[in-house]
Amino acid sequence: MILTDHFQTNKFSNKDQYDAFVSNIGIFFDVKQDPHKDKTGNHFIADMKSYFLNEVVLIKSKIEAQYFFRNKQMISRSSIDHILIQVFSKGWTSNLKTKDELCKGRKLIVIDTSQPWQAYNPDFENYTLVIPRRTLFNSIGDPHIFHGKILDCDRNPMADILYKYVYSLGESIEKTQSSLASTICRATQEIVKAALKQELFFDQNNHIEMKFTVHNDEYLTPVKLMIKEYIEKNLHDPQLSVNSISKNMGVSRSQLYRLFPKSEGGIMSYARSTRLRKAYLMLTDSNNNHLSIGEIAYKCGFENESSFSRSFKNHFSLQPREARYTQYMNPRLKTEQNHWHNWIYKL
């Protein structure tokens, strides 16, 4: 059978249920309970069943009303780079800024885990597809352009197919043999790509189509991924620069500027953000408590602690010492039922 992980709060005592949920959902979101919900007995209901399909994870959820957040700190802490596609069988999600009730009826919503997110969901039941960004690049460019996008089945025929497919998959997955995981994975990815490409077609008169044209170059996509990998492996080098990347990767400066345009911050902005994300993870990892902030800054390619602290504060809106302190604050219950976290990191 397909590899499955099942998290249920009813397996914990009332006082531990919400902390267990926070620990379980924390790979994707920081959460906060709806203050208007009845807390009688402190009983909290959350049921999440996850299915591993090689390069796709399907999650079936039933959760009480929650606020969901992803900010810069959360994005760095979780260190994942996936696209979430959700369909709701009960409830919906609401944008906290606009208060719009999204994804009601025959609609899907796309969430990019590399982007900030703030939403409120009343009591809900939904399916979530978790797909690594790299598997979508070749067909649709960088999926970040779809962040927060609603795919309406009445407008987009491929979204309608995806919507029905997700429900059908959710209903039949328990009976599916593990040998079919790869086949299901490929089929899921292709249907998702088709739905997103169809959405691009409808948006061809705005900036989304322009971005698609730039990123859909079959040569540029794998080269960009290799350059990102090179940058990540050489973050410790303070001499990392456009020239060094160009020389070691055999790519001209003009190609680098095309791959990492100014509209996205440029290549060195990407390198700096990656360094800061790595530093955040190191600061909040108790295994690095023996390292000073200056030592962590050096390991992440910063030449001195003062410039590192300034950059860190500008990026995360808190000092490095404050980030380090967060590992000691509000400890959450650790659960054994988080095998699916490992699946997400392996995608």
Q: Major beta sheet, specifics?
A: 7 strands, antiparallel
CATH topology of the largest domain: Jelly Rolls
Q: CATH H-level name of the largest domain... which superfamily? A: Jelly Rolls
Strand order, main sheet: write it out: 1-3-4-11-6-9-12
CATH class of the largest domain: Mainly Beta
Structural class: alpha+beta
Strand residue percentage: 15-25%
Give the name of the CATH architecture of the largest domain: Sandwich
Which overall shape is indicated by the principal axes computed on the Cα atoms? Answer: globular
| Low-pLDDT stretches | 205-219
- What's the N-to-C terminus distance? 19 Å
Descriptive report:
A seven-stranded antiparallel sheet has the order 1-3-4-11-6-9-12, with helices on both faces. The model is unreliable at 205-219 (pLDDT under 50). It has two domains: 4-214 and 333-346, Jelly Rolls (Sandwich); 220-316, Orthogonal Bundle (Arc Repressor Mutant, subunit A), CATH 1.10.10.60. It is built from 14 helices and twelve strands. It has helices at residues 14-25, 72-78, 137-140, 157-172, 181-202, 207-215, 220-233, 242-249, 253-259, 267-283, 293-299, 305-316, 320-325, 339-346; strands spanning 4-8, 30-33, 46-52, 57-63, 66-70, 82-90, 93-95, 101-102, 107-112, 117-121, 124-132, 150-152. A hairpin with a 4-residue loop joins strand 3 and strand 4. The protein has 347 residues and is α+β, with helices and mostly antiparallel strands. The longest helix has 22 residues, at 181-202.
